[in-house]
Amino acid sequence: MEKFTKLKSIAADLQISNIDTDMIIPKQFLKTIKRTGLGSALFYEMRYDEKGNVIKSFILNNAPYNKAKILISGKNFGCGSSREHAPWALLDFGIRCIVAESFADIFYNNCFKNGILPIVLPENQVKELSEAAKKNKEIEIDLVDQKIHKGDNRPFDFEIEPFRKECLLNGYDDIALTLKKDAKIKTFEQNKKNLTPWLY
Amino acid sequence: MAKTLYDKIWESHLVDEQNDGTSLLYIDRHLVHEVTSPQAFEGLRLSNRKVKLPGSTLAVVDHNVPTTDRSKGIADKESAIQVETLSKNCKDFGIEFFGLTDKRQGIVHVIGPEQGFTQPGMTIVCGDSHTSTHGAFGALAFGIGTSEVEHVLATQTLIQSRAKNFKISVDGKLPLGVTAKDVILSIIGKIGTAGGTGYVIEYCGEVFRNFSMEERMTVCNMSIEAGARAGLVAPDQKTFDYIKGRPLAPKGENWEKALKYWSTLYTDKDAKFDRELHLQGKDIEPTVTWGTSPQDTASINGKVPDPNLEKNEDRKKSILRSLDYMGLEPNTAIQDIKIDKVFIGSCTNGRIEDLREVAKIVKGKKVNKSVDAIVVPGSGLVKLQAEKEGLDKIFKESGFDWREPGCSMCLGMNPDQLKPKERCASTSNRNFEGRQGRGGRTHLVSPVMAAAAAIEGKFVDIRKII
User: Fold this and answer.
1) CB-defined contacts A:B, below 8 A
2) Is B15 helix (H, G, I), strand (E, B) or coil?
3) Are the C-beta atoms of residues B340 and B372 closer than 8 Å to each other?
4) CB A15 within 8 A of CB A74
5) Sheet of B123-126: strands edge to edge?
6) pTM: predicted TM-score of the whole model, two decimal places
7) At A79, is the secondary structure helix, strand, or coil?
8) What tens digit of pLDDT does each residue of B341-400 get?
9) Do B39 and A34 touch (CB under 8 A)?
10) With a CB-CB cutoff of 8 Å, which residues 395-434 of chain B face chain A?
11) Strands (E), B220-274
12) Which residues of A touch B159 (CB under 8 A)?
């Protein structure tokens, strides 16, 4: 997983609430057996019409937002299915950070496994970032200091669980970390075999 | 200290807990399907890792499979590759696999309970958000992404943080014709699709106690549509009776041991919930969604909302967007909405009891000539049982298509899709834009409401029919 420390980019503003994973990546693209190459299908039905023509009015189809690494969006972003194809598609498009009032649980979790930072901010701050995004202002996300700089002297602070932060900063592989606890898992399993033998 | 059912299951699976609350949770059972697993197996291969407990893992193909004649395999090349990839992965890693022609094949959340794989007090995961279904057995069950699928395959654990406790009780009795689907749609309508975010919901009260296991599964299934990590119903005699004798259920001495343990799985009397919602069964009506989110619900006697009456700007915007997509005018009576398609099936409502209820409504009647209707059983065993009971004949005589089992039109990864602007009464769980096919318009309803809509060609109040 690619490390995440600091990110400076213009942001694309997509103020829709409840953006679901079917919108982020529709079903026909879930037939892949790979993780890569899904960027061109990101927000497919909003980006292309029935004939596959580019819909000009959609924000990610226009420069400079087609190069945005930050997405500012509405509440409950990523609701719906558990498909990790959603963060894969965002990442492949180039999005490394999503700011919203709230996220759906599984999507939020999936982001961290792919080096994407989802940031939860209160409504007024999301609005302010959305205005900055519309003015093409560069926004800097500093994960180390947990700050969002937007070109004035009033950076926003954001919260992140220490363990998730550590993993992003170092690009850790979760499985390798867990395997270090193998002895604990073995002990737990042994006890469990005695308590609930019918499970083994 | 008094504990909730969730607290008990969580604590009994805690391998390790760090200072910031990040926990390592032991996973008892893992269900795998073809769509969210190929990259996980690829990851294992790349890092030379094995599946830790192949015997705790069960795999099936469901999302991509055609529901028409399967004797020639799968025509869509990509779907065929994905199905074949799962078959190969299971062989290579020693995992039991129900393939396309296995009579036990079916939707992953139908076959788990059917096989006795799902049991109380377990932690169960699957790369599918509707894993919450298994919570009906008092198991902590939730959907995970593909990276986590790989993590569970390799370590039989997951990195998690503890959720909060949310109690939803529905007391009293449901009116005739009001079903488990109406109960969960009403709950989502009340708390919204983010209302359960960060919580595990425990469903309590007389209505859930009186529900069959299949009805409990319908409710728990859609917990994710309320944003919850999982849904739970405490196990009781109904749960134990359902499990007993199933192929993977504990046997003999183990059965007795299991029963003893399962009987401890309930929320203690004085346990504290972080949030509570109390509803009365008598207040719940047959429910239809009008928009593109499961929270967009209305009573069958209600109307499509008027965005001009909405004060919240954000909500107004989303109503406008939904109505535009759905091709509906504000204030249209729900009973004036005509439909083109009916889909009966899915992990929400594709079980034998659902099919029996539908058969009762459509027996001796004909599907409206303006409607195409299909019944897709949740599994091969559901299909066989339905055929044994003659339900297939009732459906076919009414004009329904009787199909092979799978996820089908719930998400349309196979050829079962809506065409642009087609309007469907669907017993599935999501009415998102494009979910059942690009431009397709989905109204979520109960099986009996879908059955009645198939006959009438529009939504009708089921209470006036039965």
Assistant:
1) 181
2) strand
3) yes
4) yes
5) B96-98, B57-60, B29-32, B123-126, B140-143
6) 0.97
7) strand
8) 999 999 999 999 999 999 999 999 999 999 999 999 999 999 999 999 999 999 999 999
9) yes
10) 411-413, 420, 430, 432-434
11) 230-232
12) 163, 174, 178
> What does the CA dihedral B268, B273, B279, B284 come to, rounded to 10 degrees?
-100
Instruction: Work out the burial of residue B335: count CB atoms within 10 Å of its CB; fewer than 13 is exposed, 13-18 middle, 19 or more buried.
Output: middle
Q: Complex ipTM, two decimals?
A: 0.97
**Which of A50, A82, A120 should we substitute to test contact with B (largest number of B Cβ atoms within 10 Å)?**
A82
- Choose, out of A34, A42, A79, the residue to mutate when testing the contact with B (most B CBs < 10 Å): A79
Evaluated on CA atoms A196, A197, A199, A200, the torsion sign reads positive
**Spatial separation of the C-alpha atoms in residues B360 and A176, rounded to whole Å:** 55
Chain B contact for A196 (CB, 8 A cutoff): yes
* Cα(B98)–Cα(B247) distance, integer angstroms: 14
**What is the token pair recorded at B171?**
């007391």
pLDDT in tens, A69-88: 999 999 999 999 999 999 99
Amino acid at B423: R
Sheet with B164-171, edge to edge strand ranges: B230-232, B199-204, B164-171, B275-280
For residue B229, the chain A residues in CB contact (below 8 A) are: 105
Please name the helix (run of DSSP H) or strand (run of DSSP E) that holds residue A14, with its range, or none. Answer: strand A11-14
Q: Is B111 helix (H, G, I), strand (E, B) or coil?
A: helix
Phi, psi of B284 (to 5 degrees): -90, 135
Strand pairing of B287-289 and B297-299?
antiparallel
Q: Which residues of chain A have a CB within 8 Å of the CB of B144? A: 82, 106, 109
Answer yes or no: are the C-beta atoms of B294 and B429 closer than 8 Å.
yes
What residues contact residue B84 under an 8 Å CB cut-off, 6+ apart? none
Question: 3-class SS at A200?
Answer: coil
User: CB within 8 A of B27, min separation 6: which ones?
Assistant: B13, B56, B123, B124, B125, B152, B156, B157, B158
